[in-house]
């Protein structure tokens, strides 16, 4: 299975299903693992990096869940292909841009990806649509169990799994959800929520990058602590917080519809018709408008678009994807035109 | 003929016809006259003001052009009715809001209005669609000639017609055109044009108010000098400048279509779909969006709306008009909803 076959589809985690999927876009669980007897990738030489890739890919062959998965060697991919993988959340920025022997294993529906030789030897992640942290954990855990039978992990009885960065030591697990909170943003309650969530030991930020502005009312909540709690405790805690946040957001949306119905409808219909009519549009604006339409669908204002279509637009109008679709490099100004064309076609 | 009958229509000067009507919205000629033997309205007493109204309305009856015109006594009108007249450019802000005995005479198609007891005893104006200053002058001049046979004007052989404000002394004439210049605004050439026009003794400003921002890319060019030039010289000079400005604007539009076609089309289609979809919209945004659509019609980007419809929206979505249509006073926030409804219906 080739990269381009894989990428014609939208990952299953963007199909708009799962628990609380009107508010929670996706859930992600990631495990960091390292092989005993090898330096962390940063300090490993070429031969060692290749050996690590060799061992991990060999072990993967025996994991039932990963049958049919594609193995990609990043130094054999073009820059554009790597950017596409990054835009699909299958590899990290570091993995897409760094030097050295690196690989990624991706399942057909893009639910699971395993980065080899990122910061750690193994970064195993599972993405699920909606609030499905337990399901995501079950998948990573079952894969991890089979891998652990074949690979010897760096493990300390005292500290747990050893990782390149101390913040990952212990469970080596990070969980996160991508959550859409236009209600709390529009009712100006978002700041208070951000503070509350931070205070209980979770980390919350806007969708793109740590320093950037929050775009499209999309937030990521993730766990900070990997040490001193079991995986199940971490998952349960995140899940509990997520359900509470969902309730806040729902109540904010109800408030809006009760007290500012015209303004919400105005926002939704303007966004919908702008996306259907724009001839030039950048990513930020696309994200903003998609957010309003998503809200409109959730609130039953717009009835004839499904979340899957929105997610496809979200994914496929990113810079590298637009260039992959065009089959060539495109300047930003040309991309803005292609993006508008693509969206108009999708929403026709 | 009642006020409400009159106001169901859009004035003929907004029908989108006339010379250069893709760029010049309308032409206006106004004459200021005062009656010999009466103080200016500011200093006249009630009896004198009534006598002036009496004499002028009597004289008007003998003007063929004014047969069928309606005579409105402003102190008998509601505040809303006066605001409506002001929004239609039939009376001035001062005439709409000031105290005392005042009247206005309006022809059926709203081409001619005569304010009685504004700053001067008589303010006679003619509005024409497009660049039709000569036509507007002919109309005011022919009416003025008949009035002059029946009324004795304050006139000095040395200074010409005497007026309450010295800036009007002489011909008592002011001419202006309302001109739409999105091309020069979008290509950033407008500042240079404004300077050039000011330097040759004409006055140029944005559509609304002297201090306000230019809205909807609409500008008014008017003559400053009423003394030392004949009426025909003033008209010819304005006409010459206006034709030059029209050529600049046309050339800016051609530049835009050659070098930034996508951006222009983007602006036009966004404006069109926003007006068709907004649920809440204020006057300023309406004006901006109408400007883009007007440009789109002129450039053949949008083919299925006519200028008359745009002008109707421009006129009828003003605050007082919206309230007149609703038959009651409306708060600004409610007007914004009604305005959006009205526009959606018009553009359906």
Task: Give a quick precis of the structure.
With 348 residues, chain A is of the alpha+beta class. Chain A contains 13 helices and 10 strands.
Question: Which features does this protein show?
Answer:
Creatine Kinase, Chain A, domain 2, homodimer, alpha+beta, two-stranded antiparallel ribbon, 13 helices, 348 residues
Topology:
Two copies of one chain form a homodimer.
Chain A: H1 3-7, E1 24-33, H2 46-60, E2 70-73, H3 79-87, H4 93-97, E3 103-106, E4 112-116, E5 122-129, H5 133-150, E6 155-156, E7 160-161, E8 173-180, H6 182-186, H7 190-199, E9 202-206, E10 218-223, H8 231-259, H9 261-277, H10 283-298, H11 307-316, H12 319-326, H13 332-347
Antiparallel strand pairs in A: 1-5, 1-8, 2-3, 3-4, 4-5, 6-7, 8-10, 9-10
Helix pairs in contact in A: 3-12, 8-9, 9-10, 10-11
Walk me through what this model shows.
The structure is a homodimer of 348-residue chains. The first copy, chain A, is built from 13 helices and 10 strands. Chain A has 348 residues and is α+β, with helices and mostly antiparallel strands. In chain A, the strands form 2 sheets. Chain A has an 8-stranded antiparallel sheet with strand order 2-3-4-5-1-8-10-9. Chain A has a two-stranded antiparallel ribbon with strand order 6-7. In chain A, a hairpin with a 5-residue loop joins strand 4 (112-116) and strand 5 (122-129). In chain A, helix 3 (79-87) crosses helix 12 (319-326) and helix 10 (283-298) packs antiparallel against helix 11 (307-316). Chain A is globular and about 65 Å long. The A-B interface holds A 262-263, 265-266, 269-270, 272-274, 276-281, 337, 340 and B 262-263, 265-266, 269-270, 272-274, 276-281, 337, 340.
